[in-house]
């Protein structure tokens, strides 16, 4: 089977993430990773916290903690939430790791040796009020391209254009708000991306036609506008230090690499962390990333929201090309639009919308996992509303799937006891059901292979609905009055559907799938997927198999619940 390397955009260390961050990178990556594992592929899913940069320094200062202590605590807090969402990372690392520092410095040295790094004296924004140079993110102002008045000095959140602080109109310090800013001279290292433009364009022409239009169009837009040389160092205390053996003067000044340079390298660094975390297992991290060591056979898929696309589709590939070493580049970049909250942006800074820790306090992870993937912002932005969330949970999860499982198992136990009943031979209804399930399963597989998550969710929902339609057609509660064997056959077939649902729903709702699977006491239940023949015959669960009725899988959200959620988080804008 194929080897699949999967990464998602690194969540920044500063603060708990909202649902938009979850659906825009980590959750779809997890769903896809789980699906590939079930199909028998060798999968490595890597992620990490992105820990360098001024926001981490400032957040630590606000909490009165050393920045390394703050980052360690914040990493553990984020990891606990992702565990709560059942994100099955193979490794969830940290960009502040020694492995990432070693690799970042290696990349920088190689780029320098190959003529792609240049030391330049530049004029940089300095705030006398704050007593420091202001890194890009801590200069705010009006974007000269779209007029957004809260643009940062590195990128406009509204139009996604990359900026320099001096591009901003009416700039101000994001720390103090002071407009008393000066421009002073300092030295920094620049990555000469302009010299790599042609190579990046040729590579994009080879691979990007396979990508979603959102990802490929952003990459090509950047290339059309031209790659610019960009500073890769900053005047900060926290970060990967510039190596003194190559740049002694800058190292003496305490320069560190800019977060956008070292963060993508952490994908490789985190894989090295994964290998070194279990030395007895002989994990080979290079076989996933370095061509001669086996990475040529790896398919690499990245997941991220559209604002991260330029860094991963153009800037990091340019870095990889510039080192003149055969590092693995992305094969497929799955980009997402925004998930909005009643049409407005989720915002970490403004605490607008539902955050991941709050979500898990309200309802179990499977409710959120299913809703978010079923409404993923793939082709355009999608909106979270409590009304839509409630309707989806109640209709799809509680009524369609949960109610089917409960009434089949409860009715069979009541009329036939604690073992799967035998019943008669399958008839025309079972044959039609088997063909329908086989076709729907094929559609589900097709959409998952294509990373079309909303369509995959629709196919999964159709699989669940097929069971309800079969049950309504056969009506075993009536059938049992005149044909006990027929009713037993209906229930045995429905129980096989429950087991099938448990297997194929696992990427979306892993906890509920585990509960459905555990309802049957099979001697050897090692199924990882369902073949077409198995879907057609629906005989995996034989007569006589003991079963139990699990607790209610999905509780309905009541009108009172809905109103309480809206009161707590806010509903539609006035």
From TrEMBL:
Its cofactor is Zn(2+). Its EC number is 6.1.1.10. It is found in: Cytoplasm. GO terms for molecular function: ligase activity. It comes from the Bacteria. Zn(2+) binds at residues 143, 146, 156, 159. Binds 1 zinc ion per subunit. InterPro entries: Anticodon_Met, Met-tRNA_ligase_1, Met-tRNA_synth, Methionyl/Leucyl_tRNA_Synth, MetRS_core, MetRS_Zn, Rossmann-like_a/b/a_fold, tRNAsynth_Ia_anticodon-bd. It catalyses: tRNA(Met) + L-methionine + ATP = L-methionyl-tRNA(Met) + AMP + diphosphate. Belongs to the class-I aminoacyl-tRNA synthetase family. MetG type 1 subfamily. Monomer. This is Methionine--tRNA ligase. The lineage of its organism: Bacteria, Bacillati, Actinomycetota, Actinomycetes, Kitasatosporales.
């Amino acid at each position: 089977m194929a080897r699949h390397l999967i990464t998602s955009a690194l969540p920044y260390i500063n603060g708990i993430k909202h649902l938009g961050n979850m659906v825009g990178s980590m959750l779809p990556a997890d769903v896809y990773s789980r699906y590939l594992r079930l199909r028998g592929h060798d999968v490595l899913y890597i992620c990490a916290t992105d820990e360098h940069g001024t926001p981490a320094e400032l957040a630590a200062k606000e909490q009165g903690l050393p920045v390394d202590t703050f980052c360690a605590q914040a990493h553990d807090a984020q990891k606990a939430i992702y565990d709560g969402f059942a994100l099955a990372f193979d490794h969830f690392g940290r960009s502040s790791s020694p492995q990432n520092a070693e690799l970042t410095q290696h990349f920088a040295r190689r780029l320098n040796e190959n003529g792609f790094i240049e030391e330049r004296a530049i004029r940089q924004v300095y705030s006398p009020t704050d007593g420091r140079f202001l890194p890009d993110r801590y200069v705010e102002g009006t974007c000269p391209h779209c007029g957004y008045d809260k643009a940062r000095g590195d990128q406009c959140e509204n139009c996604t254009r990359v900026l320099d602080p001096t591009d901003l109109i009416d700039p101000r310090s994001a720390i103090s708000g002071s407009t008393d800013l000066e421009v002073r001279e300092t030295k920094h290292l620049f990555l000469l991306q302009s010299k790599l433009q042609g190579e990046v364009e040729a590579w994009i022409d080879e691979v990007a036609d396979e990508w979603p239009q959102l990802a490929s169009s952003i990459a090509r837009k950047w290339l059309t506008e031209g790659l610019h040389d960009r500073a890769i160092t900053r005047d900060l205390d926290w970060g990967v230090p510039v190596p003194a053996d190559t740049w002694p003067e800058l190292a003496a000044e305490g320069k560190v690499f800019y977060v956008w340079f070292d963060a993508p390298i952490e994908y490789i660094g985190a894989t090295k962390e994964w290998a070194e975390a279990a030395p007895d297992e002989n994990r080979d991290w290079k076989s996933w990333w370095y061509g001669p060591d086996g990475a040529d056979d790896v398919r690499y898929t990245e997941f991220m929201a559209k604002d991260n696309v330029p860094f991963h589709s153009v800037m990091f590939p340019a870095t990889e090309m510039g080192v003149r070493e055969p590092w693995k580049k992305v094969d497929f970049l799955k980009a997402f639009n925004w998930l909005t909250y009643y049409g407005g942006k989720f915002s970490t800074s403004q605490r607008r919308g539902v955050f991941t820790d709050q979500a898990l306090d309200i309802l179990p992870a499977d409710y959120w996992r299913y809703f978010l993937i079923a409404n993923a912002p793939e082709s355009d932005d999608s909106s979270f509303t409590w009304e839509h969330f409630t309707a989806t949970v109640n209709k799809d999860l509680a009524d369609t799937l949960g109610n089917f499982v409960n009434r089949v198992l409860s009715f069979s136990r009541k009329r036939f006891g604690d073992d799967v009943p035998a019943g008669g031979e399958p008839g025309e209804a079972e044959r039609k059901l088997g063909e329908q399930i086989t076709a729907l399963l094929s559609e589900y597989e097709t959409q998952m292979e294509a990373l079309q998550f909303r369509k995959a969710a629709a196919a999964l929902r159709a699989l669940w609905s097929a069971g309800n339609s079969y049950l309504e057609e056969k009506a075993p509660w009536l059938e049992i009055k005149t044909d006990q064997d027929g009713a037993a056959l209906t229930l045995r077939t429905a129980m096989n559907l429950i087991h099938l649902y448990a297997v194929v729903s696992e990427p979306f709702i892993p906890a509920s799938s585990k509960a459905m699977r555990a309802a049957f006491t099979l001697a050897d239940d090692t199924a990882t997927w369902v073949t077409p023949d198995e879907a057609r015959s629906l005989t995996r669960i034989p007569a006589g198999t003991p079963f139990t009725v699990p607790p209610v899988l999905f509780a309905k959200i009541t009108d009172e619940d809905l109103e309480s959620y809206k009161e707590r988080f806010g509903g539609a804008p006035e």
